[in-house]
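Contributing: when you submit paired examples, paste them exactly as shown. First protein:
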Amino acid sequence: MDEKQKALDLIADYGGTDGAHHKQWLLDQVVRALAGDKYVDWVSEWQSGEDGPHTHEWDTGIAP
């Protein structure tokens, strides 16, 4: 299964789950599916911003 299909399947399976912590888990899983082995680099880059390396927080959420 390719990365795009895995991300779409995750959204289809869990997109309707209630709870912000579960939605954050879903976002994390989608990023993992799309970024693959570059996941850690992607998160680090996303966290960096105009105020330095911890401008934004990344939360892996809680699995439904």
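Second protein:
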Amino acid sequence: MNRREFLRYATAGALAAAGAALLPGCTAPAPSSRPALPPLRDRKLIIVLFGGGTRSSESIDDPKHRWVPHLWADLVPHGTLFTNMRVEGKIVHPNSAGSIVTGHWEWGDLDWSQPVAHPTVFEIARRQNGADAWAFVYASILANIGHSRADGFGQPFAANIVEPPTIPRSTAERMDRLMQHAATAPEGLGDAARRAAELARTTSRINLAGLRTEAARAFVQRHYERWKSGGGTTSHDAFLAELAIAAMTRFAPAVSAVCFGEIDCAHYGSWSRYVEAIERTDALVWRLWRAAQELDGYRGRTVMLVLPDHGRELDRPGGAGFVHHSDFYTGAGVDEGCRRVWMLAIGPGVA
């Protein structure tokens, strides 16, 4: 089975049957045990990157599943979990994300300023039946996964790309000084955190260049203005999840991708922040699936695929461990912790 055929099966929600042919030890159930597939024109696909580089040891391989309670208890029992998938290309976020949405290894030259080389699942869906497609990405390095430079595809069939708000470097430096000063007087940490969040909101900006229509730009701008004047979390991943659900309600795209990325805070070397980000991502994935069950346009017709973009290094003497996921220029440090990943498929047609 080639990669294009695999994408076609995924879109049709037939991953369980495909897995039986592709993966040793995965047996396809009797057709009667699968939820019925809706007509092709009514099907929805949501691809979720459990992103920022997540080791299996902190997710599906943790015996207690401490940081993925929703994934393990609420989602896995109702879908098919593929536990031994591998990333064979470069261990870097854009390359993995681009490869997931095309079925081909992308950006071997690491030039992320260019669109991907092969048609994306967004373009395929839009060219086939004019379906709407959106991608919610955690950083500008993923801004070019919504369309390709393949003949017959490209901008006319591109997905709407949504990026989270960003802040100028000067704001980041002010926030850093605030928190460093507060660390010398722990009773002031709460106030410093509130001031830092206020700074992040008031000095933020949002890029609308990846949105294809005036209606899409106005929609994202309104959502951003509400976020900017609000007092809730400043988490980029939470912003993307809530905006994805709002777009599902307003536009009902046939194909969506939500690329989370805050787990990559592991690079700062804090274990507690790393596992907290996994737990938050787990909750946001559960929120997305609940929305797909609550919305009339998605209930009973949505297949959701959840998978890490890649892993992180294993713990070994002299190694970086969870903090890093190899040097993507040289490949130094790449190991099974980086390469071994998993995927959950859930929805109609999936056992």
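If you have annotations for the second protein, write them as plain sentences, like these:
Residues 190 and 201 are 17 Å apart (CA to CA).
The chain has eleven helices and seven strands.
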